[in-house]
């Protein structure tokens, strides 16, 4: 008899939406296509996005919850509209907010937070966990990724009625290039960047804490957490995200049962970002491939 650990149970479920249609580029997301998406309300209003990572925990950004009491937070799962009806949603209370102990509000490094739900989530077609990027995952420049949320559709331009969940496809931008965009040293190994060099597609205010996901075979893997940027969708200023693959040890130190499913994402070929250069940027040797230590089945 094969016995699977709690982590492997979540691993087998995560990142597999039962509804899989797509509308490309800053458009309304088909209902149920991103079933891990959470809307985190503070004192009755949408504050940030988040992602369901197992049946009791939501992942978000630390900057969303500075000085926030768990009793003031409501998590909505299965939600499509902020102003219309949501027959497939579930509202849950929060018992604990755990911001990363090394979160720095000045540099916005380690911008990651865990929210523990008061009740166990029942998975449905519209409510499912996402997989998380395992340590040593690589995301080469140009890798297609998707970001979702209810944030502004431009700087200072709120999402219009009925405020349906939006989705946008953006390519990964390497950390060397991103450091050149933001100033050398600004982008750390705990961050990942995504956006068009020409601008026009991006996450924006109100999307913070939400997931940046990448598809590998039939599975969706969360690579990043919406963190910060300069304006929204500006040329040569990609969105910056907390790099999820850096935090498996920290996440699992707090989630000791039914741990999230971590999957290794490996980009193929040579990353063009390795040759990107600008004033003050040191030369970095090409990384050596490493093997995953995953113990679960993938598919």
TrEMBL record:
Pfam families: Trypsin. Coiled coil: none annotated. The keyword Signal applies. It comes from Takifugu rubripes (Japanese pufferfish). The keyword Transferase does not apply. PANTHER family: CHYMOTRYPSIN-LIKE PROTEASE CTRL-1-RELATED, TRANSMEMBRANE PROTEASE SERINE. Residues 23-256 form the Peptidase S1 domain. GO terms for biological process: proteolysis. It comes from the Eukaryota. Gene3D superfamilies: Trypsin-like serine proteases. This is Zgc:100868. GO terms for molecular function: serine-type endopeptidase activity. InterPro entries: Peptidase_S1_PA, Peptidase_S1_PA_chymotrypsin, Peptidase_S1A, Trypsin_dom, TRYPSIN_HIS, TRYPSIN_SER. Signal peptide: none annotated. Keywords: Disulfide bond, Glycoprotein, Hydrolase, Protease, Serine protease, Signal.
